[in-house]
Specification:
Number of strands: 20
Bound molecules: guanosine-5'-diphosphate, 6-O-phosphoryl inosine monophosphate, magnesium ion
Helix content: 25-40%
Shape: globular
Distance between the termini: 24 Å
Low-confidence stretches: none
Largest sheet: 10 strands, mixed
Oligomer: single chain
Amino acid sequence: MKVDVLLGLQWGDEGKGKVVDVLTPQYDVIARFQGGPNAGHSLEFNNIKHVLHTIPSGIFHPESINIIGNGVVIDPVIFKNEIEGIEKISGKISGLLISKKAHIITPTHRILDAASENAKGNSKIGSTLKGIGPTYMDKTGRNGLRVGDLLDENFIEKYNNLKEKHLILLKQYNFQFDIEPYETQFFEAVKMLLSFKLIDSEFEVDDLIRNNKKILAEGAQGSLLDIDFGSYPFVTSSNTITAGACTGLGIAPSKIGEVYGIFKAYCTRVGSGPFPTELFDETANKLRELGREFGATTGRPRRCGWMDLVALKYAVMLDGVTQLIMTKSDILDHFEEIKIATAYKVNGSITDRFPYETDALIEPVYKTFKGWKTDISKINNYKDLPIELLEYISFIESETGVPVKIVSVGPDRSQTIFK
Ligand code: GDP
Ligand code: IMO
Ligand code: MG
């Protein structure tokens, strides 16, 4: 059985958590393959609202197996809080497996993230300050600590060696910090992490594939935050595209099946960096308020704007998307007119390619659609959706060449329409 992948096609927060939770009953296994607690994946069901950071969004279905893959970076302190939060809702967790090759975020990684952002001043990335960049730097720099190292009797020595390197680096920054409280929590949390089953995820996943188990790989962030293809340097530090599922779980490319690409019916972005269709007017405020566009991890207000087909087609191409999922369609219920950018004017010339230059002067070329001005949040059948929305969807399908198979019309599990 091939592995399906679900990932974000924009700048994150497309509603991955909600949709993975909805799809979990169709799968045996949900596996995260990259990112870390920079992610905030929100789920809503039975009047419960919950945000996950490191743990796959299948966790509220007790029959599913959830895997944290080698490509993920784990902060034991955030992981411990997450476990405690989930167990309050659904009791003791079973069936959560963690790759021994996943890297550990240490207290000094978080401090380095903050110090680096502080030093960048106005050109800061706007990172989530969770230590993501420094942890992946240590991974590729071959200095990192992995979950498997926690089992090593020399773990403390390895930890202290890395900490010493970090303290030398931190001397270059004029940055005040106090590591003590972080460290106490860190070692407490490490003990809890060790109570879970640590695995060689590549072998485990291969066994599951051979046993015809259905696996869904859950992406974090979004394709436009990819370290290689996003608007560098305003990106995260992992490969967020489909290829990341191969390296982040140990799956051969030939084993990838369906690729679900998820996008909001409009666009948002948190942190710095280009956002061609960003709006600064009343429409932006309306999208932000109606869509409750405030970060699930940091609480920051999200930048808002219209749907961007140039960016969406770029992500569809990079990810090899086979099915599209549109979320937050209900937020557009309240607009007379809805716009989609179909091309960019970059330094005076029209293009439908996502530009290399992050500082290029980009002017979106818009197509305007009539709004439906109807409450769609209680609709269950695709054919009952308003004609104006069906036209909006058809246009996206014809431009991307990929069918929209799911339309999400509210944050709850139940507010999901399958075509
Ligand atoms: P993720 O990071 O991709 O999992 O997305 P987030 O959870 O960070 O942000 C998506 C937000 O939109 C969350 O608050 C969800 O509860 C909410 N949401 C998801 N789908 C819908 C939808 O179709 N309509 C509405 N109104 N909210 C949605
Ligand atoms: P989910 O999985 C939205 C953004 C940050 C910043 C940049 C780099 O919930 O969609 P990092 O902490 O990774 O070094 O920050 O990436 N970012 C996200 N934006 N959703 C996320 O995750 C994000 N994870 C990171 O705001 O601009
Ligand atoms: Mg999020």
